[in-house]
Amino acid sequence: MRGSPWVEALGSDLERLHPRLRAYFGTIPEGSIGHGSGVFDVVGTPRRWLWPLLALLSLDAVLFPVWERDVPFRVRNAPAEGRVNALRRFEFVRGARTMVDSTSFDAALVDRLGRRGLISAELVATVHDGMLVLESSRTRVLGIPIPAALSPRVTLIERWDDAAERQHVSLVLDAPVIGRLYEYSGHFDYRVVAHD
After folding, report:
1. Rg (CA), the chain
2. DSSP bridge pairs for 137
3. Phi/psi at 150 (nearest 5 deg)?
4. Which contacts of 82-86 are long-range, i.e. CB under 8 A and separated by 24 or more positions?
């Protein structure tokens, strides 16, 4: 069985991750899924002029037109044929919404966003002080690369918070000239469990 996409991307650097993060990014055994729950301190963007575009992206479960704090969420990671399919359920004030993505590795770590994967980002994975840092190097829409000068940049940091004894995630999406487009960050608990 192939390793998880992050195992494939990191190689021996996987051992430099905090031990508690290895369960999250390691290979999920056959017949099991990863399950987590926690609270995001913040989700979305206060720039309401972006909300019409985010509303379109929400139709495919990519991003959402919100700016909320203290948002409960759950994550479910399921392995499938060399990739990991993730569902993140956000309990927003106006109702629950689910974000979907699928991560795979084939010469590069690629995250396909939404139910149809129409937007994808190639990610560079590095380990710093036990944290995993993922930074986008190329973004495609409908398979067409967006020029680097126009392409939004994703930075995701996963770390173990010793003080809280929980995993912490933060994601920011920035664009040239415009600046911050979207973000989320928060703590959660995670475990790999047998799939029903």
Report:
1. 16
2. none
3. -110, -15
4. 82/2, 82/5, 82/106, 83/5, 84/4, 84/5, 84/28
* Cβ-contact 122, 108 below 8 angstroms: yes
Ordered per-residue pLDDT tens for the chain, 196 residues? 457 899 889 888 888 999 999 888 888 888 888 899 999 999 999 999 999 999 999 999 999 999 999 999 999 999 888 889 999 999 999 999 999 999 999 889 999 999 998 999 999 999 999 999 999 998 898 888 888 778 889 999 999 998 888 999 999 999 888 889 999 999 999 998 887 6
Determine if the pTM surpasses 0.70: yes
Task: Give how far Cα 62 sits from Cα of 37, 140, 160, Å.
Answer: 19, 14, 26
Contact by Cβ (8 Å): 149, 139: no
Nearest to 91 by CA among 99, 79, 82, 83: 99
Q: Write the DSSP symbol of residue 56.
A: H
Phi (first) and psi of residue 12, to 5 degrees: -70, -20
> Hey, what are 48's tokens?
């309401």
